[in-house]
Amino acid sequence: MALEADVAKVHAARSAADLVQPGMIVGLGSGSTAALMVKRLGERVAQEGLDFVGVPTSVTTAELARDLNIPLRDVDDVPSVDLNIDGADEIDPQYRMIKGRGGALLREKLVACVAKRRVTIVSPEKIVPRLGAESPVPVEVSRLGYRHVEQRLRRLGATTSLRRSPEGMLFITDGGNLIIDCRFSTLADPETLEAGLKSVVGVFESGLFLGLCDVLVVGRPDGAEQIVTHARRWTGCA
To answer: Which tens digits make up the pLDDT trace of 23-36?
Structure first.
């Protein structure tokens, strides 16, 4: 089963990477499936001479892309992004997502928000009937006052856990912030929850990605399917 999932990720990643055209500015997502996509783009650079610019969403992605000779720019150095390609921890039938297991949610959402077209790459187990049944909602918060922020998140109904490294140290994001993972007994209204989370002083971003998937690429052991979602664009990008 694990082998099938790995093969599915490869098919999703390659299918999405092949959407990149010469001259594009491309958001390069973070995570295991996104890494496979970046590797495929590196192959295209080497084999086809594909000329494009990548905008990485994490230090890890940037390091991988540089190793593959992919030219990079920071998001503040480009007017917009033509195509953003990233994975998801969960995605529901309305194409709403939870992201941030790898800790890059703030940069991932910033890049997705300035992209003209957003492609999400997943294997079938990431498609869920309801968000939050398995994955917590990561919330990126200020290091200053984080205990008070955590208390306010609990008042919203969250069971919270301050993310730590495998060594037990506080997990620090690329932006120097902390992550509080939040579980909710029910997550029936992600839009209302997103508004509540963002109303807490000290919260920089949440792992709820709503209206940020224009094309869903689902990898399977025998190939990949591309689905145009027609999802309503997130108002935070207006």
So the answer is: 999 999 999 999 99
pLDDT at position 4 is 63
Length of the chain equals 238
Annotated active-site positions, please? Answer: 108
Q: What are residue 198's phi and psi, to 5 degrees?
A: -75, -15
Q: What is the DSSP string of 124-164?
A: GGGB-SSTTSSS-EEEEE-STTHHHHHHHHHHTT-EEEE-B
Low-confidence residues of the chain, pLDDT below 70?
A: 1-5, 231-235, 238
What token pair was written down for 225? 């399917």
What are the C-alpha distances in Å from 5 to residues 15, 28, 123, 125? 15, 21, 6, 8
Biggest CA pair distance of the chain? 54
**Cα–Cα distance for residue pair 31/52, rounded to 1 Å:** 21
Please name which of 128, 145, 134 lies closest in space to residue 101, comparing C-alpha atoms.
134
Lookup: tokens for 113: 């928000």
β pairing state of 118-122 and 83-86: parallel
